[in-house]
Write a structure and sequence with these properties.
Blueprint lengths: L6 E4 L3 H12 L4 E4 L12 H4 L4 E2 L3 H5 L10 H6 L2 H11 L4 E4 L3 E4 L4 H15 L2 E3 L4 E7 L2 E7 L2 E4 L2 E4 L14 H8 L4 E7 L3 E3 L3 H4 L4 E11 L2 E12 L3 E3 L1 H7 L9 E6 L6 H13 L19 H8 L12 H11 L2 E3 L1 E4 L7 E6 L17 E3 L13 H16 L1
This protein binds flavin-adenine dinucleotide (FAD).
């Protein structure tokens, strides 16, 4: 078998592109094999097409957002922190960046495509050879050392192989879990892939009735055993199965154990204290005294939500507003400050933004990303059993681990 490269990087996603570019800049002959026709397909849809590249925070800030095995990422984050990534984009790749709420960093152009193409440029101008529509089928391992990979067109030899194939989420982008098979073939343990940052099934039937309704400014609280584990302001969406949208995806990452041990509550009027909301209701009611209750909430709530709130309030829809008691009004205000939703499960991992689980990190050297089992085999990115909350942290994990592998192959 002829060695066509010093190193083969499997997967031209965030981790693979960074890895290939970094290794090529060290003078390594790098072959980057991507199974899709186009590299970085997932990167192109990140951040709703705007790509939240990273988070402009320090090491502690990064580590505190990682859900599993944060200590494993200490070296990777220290070696290639957000500041280094931002400098690479702005100074070397000519992509201007901007920082938004919560230190989230985006291309100034709001174009994920710009970010993806810059990274492809980084790999290619460094000297890495990119082949697309080139799926790796398996690893070639002899006597405890990597020798190369199998592709549809035959064996390709190399001293080092980096598996940067991602997880199993959004499989149409190319991440279909091949890396887990490669890892298992090499004798690695793989923690079961699970969904994180994922829409939720909800018990309450009214979600179906509200399908398509987006709440732009609400506060979502997730509690477990009465203790608040997540609370944020933002946007959420009702769907035929339950709830989705940025707030829900973020909240889902805080679910530990069984879903139905948790409770969600939506504050529909987060800008108003209970007293202010009561005054607001009084004001709205005073202008509608002779109307039916159901016809008095038009200024307060989206149209689709009114029949649901009326039902949950226990006040008869046809009750005249002037008959509404103080107690009924206070109960209504309480309801608006906390509509209860009971999660019963998550959507499948394919619909999750991130796959939790993956290659067990105890079997990978955190200083180099090299396998502790097979010499010359490396892992980088989402294929590893690490995942984080939203805010640019998952891409930073891919970039930092990819860079570290690239420095060591
Ligand atoms: C809709 C969506 C939005 C997101 N938005 C953000 C965001 O704004 N900010 C953020 O931080 N994170 C975001 N994420 C998460 C982030 O995109 C991933 O964590 C990150 O892309 C993982 O990078 P990776 O390189 O490990 O894997 P991937 O980006 O999945 O890349 C893996 C690559 O390997 C290739 N591949 C797989 N198998 C083979 C094989 N056998 N042979 C050859 N090639 C193969 C795939 O085709 C793919 O190109 C988002 C995810 C989704 C789904």
């Amino acid at each position: 078998m002829e060695n066509r490269a010093d190193a083969i990087v499997v997967g031209a996603g965030a981790a693979g592109l960074l890895c290939a570019g970094a290794a090529a800049r060290r003078g390594r002959r790098v072959l980057l094999l991507e199974k899709m026709q186009q590299p970085a397909k997932k990167l192109r849809i990140t951040g709703k097409g705007r790509c939240n590249l990273t988070n402009n925070t320090d090491l502690d800030g990064l580590l505190s957002t990682v859900r599993n095995n944060h200590r494993f990422l200490y070296s990777a984050f220290s070696t290639f922190p957000p500041a280094a990534l931002m400098a690479l984009f702005e100074h070397e790749l000519g992509v201007k960046l901007k920082t938004e709420r919560g230190n989230r960093v985006f291309p100034a152009s709001d174009s994920a495509r710009d970010a993806a193409e810059a990274l492809v440029r980084y790999a290619k101008t460094g000297g890495a050879r990119l082949e697309t529509a080139a799926a790796v089928k398996g690893l070639i391992i002899e006597n405890g050392a990597i020798k190369g990979v199998m592709t549809a067109s035959g064996a390709v030899g190399a001293e080092s192989v980096v598996v940067a194939t991602g997880g199993v989420s959004y499989p149409l982008t190319g991440s279909t879990g091949d890396g887990y098979r490669f890892a298992a073939q090499a004798g690695h343990s793989v923690e079961e892939p699970r969904p994180s940052l994922v829409p939720l099934h909800i018990k309450e039937d009214f979600c179906r009735e509200l399908t398509g309704l987006s709440l732009k400014n609400c506060e979502l609280t997730l509690k477990k055993a009465g203790k608040t584990v997540f609370q944020e302001l933002g946007e959420m969406l009702f769907t035929h199965f339950g709830v989705s949208g940025p707030l829900v995806l973020s909240a889902s990452a805080h679910i530990k154990g069984e879903c139905d041990e948790h409770a969600l509550s939506v504050d529909l009027k987060p800008g108003l204290t209970p007293e202010q909301l009561d005054s607001r209701l009084l004001r709205d009611f005073s202008g509608n005294l002779n109307k039916d209750f159901i016809n008095s909430l038009g200024d307060l709530l989206p149209r689709k939500l009114i029949p649901v709130i009326v039902r949950l309030s226990g006040i008869e829809p046809a009750q005249k507003v002037h008959d509404i008691t103080k107690k009924q009004r206070q109960n209504l205000a309480e309801l608006l400050k906390g509509v209860t939703l009971t999660p019963t499960g998550t959507r499948p991992v394919e619909e999750a933004v991130v796959t939790a689980g993956g290659v067990r990190v105890g079997e990978v050297n955190p200083k180099t990303m090299e396998s502790k089992i097979i010499k010359g085999l490396y892992f980088a990115g989402e294929v590893l059993d690490v995942d984080a909350y939203t805010g640019g942290f998952n891409l930073q994990i891919a970039f930092s681990t990819g860079y570290l592998a690239g420095q060591n192959i």
